[in-house]
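EI: anyone free to look at a 123-residue chain?
SC: sure, send it
EI:
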Amino acid sequence: QVQLVESGGGLVQPGGSLRLSCAASGLTFRTYSMGWFRQAPGKEREFVATISWSAPSTHYADSVKGRFTVSRDNTVNTVYLQMNILKPEDTAVYYCAASVAVLPNRVRDYAYWGLGTQVTVSS
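SC: here you go
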């Protein structure tokens, strides 16, 4: 049974920072690329960032480049999303996902999903 469990969401002021974690179990973590997606009210789920299994390679959505950093610790089967200079438009449910692709950026590229964690950026 594969499980991805996100944590670290919450309420933060604009310009603030937050770090999300995703703990994976039930899969050989080091062989999967890991990604982050988000879904705001009334919008479709969108790609945020991914980190590959094949190399220390990352890819980010244009909207978060320079502000967000994705990383992973294969010793504890965890992927992180460091979010800095947060904006109100970053408000969404953030989802962790796992893929066998190299740098997947589409929902359909991911085989496993967590249930999400809420991030709210507001004054």
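EI: The chain has a mean pLDDT of 96.
SC: 👍
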